[in-house]
Amino acid sequence: MTTTPVKKNLSRLAIVGLFALFIGPFALAWYLFNHHDSLTWSTVNHGTLITPTIKTTDLGLQGQKWHILFLTDGACEQQCQHQQDLIIRLWLAMGKRKDQIIPEMLTTFKEDNHFLALSKKRFPDLIISYFPQDNLATLETQLSQDTLPTLSPENFYLADRRGHIMMAYAANTNPKAIISDLKRLIKG
């Protein structure tokens, strides 16, 4: 019995298809592993990822909650008050997930002065923590990478549940972008 050319082509096509089905993923994996430098990958986060993360054992940020924080190194002027308002709005915008986040202001101003009392009165949910001036210098050197926004009162930082500062946001970052990142991190 002779095979027709159509059946012969179909059987060859089936063999090639099976070969591609089993060998194709290995070839693709080998290519991605060996040539990953030439490929450009996009990220979905809107902030600047801090690698390696900065451990902050002296800040007391450990716990089971995320921290969104900003720093101030003196009297809370208009910009600082705007940041306080914005951090509380970010926290409130998280809705039912806000119980997993702590809004926090780190200040180098230790005295319980007028601006601290006013901040506690205006924003009772905002945690105000003392941050020693010596530790601020250490944190500045750790955050002084070229890719990160400079350490300033306008910037926001995210700390994970283990107390590592892991993401930085510049002053001009859209608040919706920060909320998007927070929701993605909390869900994950």
Arithmetic mean pLDDT: 76
Q: Helicity, in percent? A: 40-55%
Strand arrangement in the largest pleated sheet: 1-6-5-2-3-4
- Please count the beta strands (DSSP E, at least 2 residues each): 6
For the termini, the CA-CA separation is: 62 Å
Rg is 26 Å
Look up the CATH topology of the largest domain.
Glutaredoxin
The helix tally amounts to 5
CATH homologous group name of the largest domain: Glutaredoxin
> How many strands, which pairing sense, and closed or not: the largest β-sheet?
6 strands, mixed
Overall CATH architecture of the largest domain = 3-Layer(aba) Sandwich
Overall body shape = elongated
- Total number of distinct structural domains: 2
Question: In percent, how much strand structure appears in the residues?
Answer: 15-25%
String of helices and strands = HEEHEHEHEEH
Structural class: alpha/beta
Provide the CATH top-level class of the largest domain. Alpha Beta
Q: Extract low-pLDDT stretches.
A: none
Which short descriptors sum up this protein?
alpha/beta; Glutaredoxin
Mind explaining what this structure looks like?
The chain has 188 residues and is of the alpha/beta class. It folds into 2 domains: 5-38; 48-187, Glutaredoxin, CATH 3.40.30. Helices cover 41% and strands 19% of the residues. The protein has 5 helices and 6 strands; from the N terminus they run H-E-E-H-E-H-E-H-E-E-H. The protein has helices at 5-34, 78-93, 114-122, 133-142, 175-187; strands spanning 48-55, 66-72, 101-107, 127-130, 156-159, 164-169. It has a 6-stranded mixed β-sheet with strand order 1-6-5-2-3-4, with helices on one face. Strand 3, helix 3 and strand 4 (127-130) form a beta-alpha-beta unit. The longest helix has 30 residues, at 5-34. The N and C termini lie far apart (62 Å). The relative contact order is 0.19.
